[in-house]
Amino acid sequence: MKKLFFVFPILVLLAAGCNSTQQANVQTPIAQQATPVPTTTANIHGSAQQPTPTPKTTPQVTKTPAPVTAPIINSINPTSGPADATTVTMSGAGFTTSNNSVYLSASSYFGSSNNFGLLIATVNSSDTHTLKLIVPSTIPSGGGSSLINPGTYTLTVVNANGASNHTTFTVTPSMTTSCVINSFTASPLTVPTGGTSSLSWNTNNCTNIYISNTGLSTFNKKVDSSGSMIVSPTAYPQSSTTYTIEAHDATGTGVITKSVTVMVSH
């Protein structure tokens, strides 16, 4: 009995120790779970998911085509000069890069809004603001050609955009050319009654040339710048006939003459 009395307290102490150890082991994981672990929402790639941006919309812009503007001539430089020797520059707007037709006419030529005169040039414009051309001395017309005499003319530009306003250009006489009668002769100078003589002439830089007393009409005969013709001098009432060549210069105002007399023998 004495041995059992001593054993029983030992067993109680051992049992109490075991209960203390188990309680310590149970409380340890509870203490570990008390520490909060931050959490994030992750996508399938393991990174934090960002908010989806709102798509931007681009406003639609409607382009209105530029209005077609007829050509406009604002200025011309120079405003005068001799034909075939003067480069004219037109400044304005509405010129096309190609096929700008330039027409020339006397002011009295205009009979309607569609009558622009005679075509003198078709030119291009690299900047659509300037045109350059040389006013010619002759213009093809009706299968032949028309001479541009000194004077004031109207210029008009016509292209795909329409017709321009009118501007003027004055053609001046060339300073290097003047009308000259090189020769005017008759052969023979004496003829019998009823005989004939040959007139010959040669001129330079003359526009209108006439020979009087040709017997072909009551007016002076217009001739070329050089040539010859047969005439029949009259014996009555005078015994001789005087022939005169008359030539006009480029201005139309200067006139020079030269005469020759054919005698008629009786």
Oligomer: single chain
Largest sheet: 6 strands, mixed
Gross morphology: rod-shaped
Strand content: 35-45%
Q: Give me the CATH superfamily of the largest domain.
A: Immunoglobulins
Report the helical percentage. Answer: 10-25%
C-alpha Rg (nearest Å): 56 Å
Provide the number of structural domains. Answer: 2
Query: DSSP helix count?
Result: 1
Number of strands: 19
Low-confidence stretches: 1-5, 21-34, 108-113
What is the terminal-to-terminal distance?
211 Å
Q: Which architecture of the largest domain per CATH?
A: Sandwich
How are helices and strands ordered from N to C?
A: HEEEEEEEEEEEEEEEEEEE
Assign the CATH topology of the largest domain. Immunoglobulin-like
Mean pLDDT: 77
The structural class is: mainly beta
Name of the top-level CATH class of the largest domain: Mainly Beta
Description:
This protein is mainly beta. The chain is built from one helix and 19 strands. Strands 2, 4, 5, 9, 10 and 11 form a six-stranded mixed beta sheet that branches. It has a five-stranded mixed beta sheet with strand order 13-19-18-15-16, with no helix packed on it. The protein is rod-shaped and about 135 Å long.
Kindly list the characteristics that best describe this protein.
Immunoglobulin-like, 19 strands, five-stranded mixed beta sheet, mainly beta, 2 domains, disordered N terminus, six-stranded mixed beta sheet, 266 residues, single chain, 1 helix, rod-shaped
